[in-house]
Amino acid sequence: MADAELGRLMTKQEADGALERLRDERERIGAGLLDLDAHPGHRMLDGASLTGASAELQARVADRMARLWQLFDRYRNVLADAEQLRERHPRPKPSQLADLTRMLYGKSVELEPEQVPLEKRGLLGGPRPTRLTLHAAVQRMTALYDEVAHDVAAVDAAWSALLPALDAVESKHREAAALAASLELPVADLDGLGREVAEAGHAVRADPLSLVRNSAPDTSGLTELSRRLDEVVARLRGAAQLRDGFATRLAAADSLIAEVRQAHEEALRVRAEALEKIASPGLPEPSDAAAALADRLAALRHLPATGRWDDLAERLADLERAATDARARAQHDRDLAAGLLERREELRGRLAAYRVKAARVGLAEDAEIQTIHERARELLWTSPCDLRAATVALSGYQQAVNSRAKGADR
Known about the structure:
By secondary structure, the protein is mostly helical.
């Protein structure tokens, strides 16, 4: 109030208006401080055992919150005194209006002097108490509030991102440890991962700000740790499943190897037919993997007695992959040979179709057309069949029929 600062006293109406505005301001400040006190990040900071940069932030927040509440107490005490003065004097005199003016617009908020070390004090002692106007006190509280809110938001953002990721990692480690215990397996890499999980837990809980990079929480380390734990858990789950269904898994592997053997025999049969009916087919000799796979499976049948279910699960999974690949290779070899035989049948069908076309356009008795047809037919019905020569002969027959057919149309 500029006039008050120049010495003019407030009127009764001005004093009542100022008190009403300040009451509303006091309520909003109080609500804001309570919200800040109740903020999840502040609640976690309060009483937490922190280290490093997070401990420094914790101390800074605690100091500023204490100063905020102290300043607010002084602020509302002055306002309460002004309210009581106004209530006692419904018709205030000039002296009472002067007191109200001083309380509401003068430097009426007295703060404790800052603690000053002895070596920095003069002969006459430390600094005198600081006095602020209500407006200046609100400005100072606003600055302190903004600083605290910024710090609380920073640590809350770090914990909000890091704690769920840490919880997932710790949960996976517990699952892996429980699986290893149920299998009675010493898992070497699990011990190392356990130490890393413990270190990560201490960092996240005791100094989350140490994991902040470029103002953002860095969860990459936890993500990588989670991925490695996933691998261990998957391996141990596979071992547990194998232990519980070993007989079924062995029977399935037996069946798979039988399919490999059957696919190999089929590939040999179709290849032999192709060698008989197709000249120079260039087909590879199908490899027989069934016997070697059966030997590997026989060796695995005795491993359960060792209790190494994780090793057995890995070796059985490798065997299953090898058997699946061998079956696919045998089927591919069979398909290559069958494809040559199907190509010969396709060429035979096309030759028959063009012979029908030649007859339809009146070329059935054409000597040249007949000669070309017989050449193609001889190649296609001779074993072994030269597919390359037969394809060329058929193409010549098609061209001849099409050319003569166009001439007949004219």
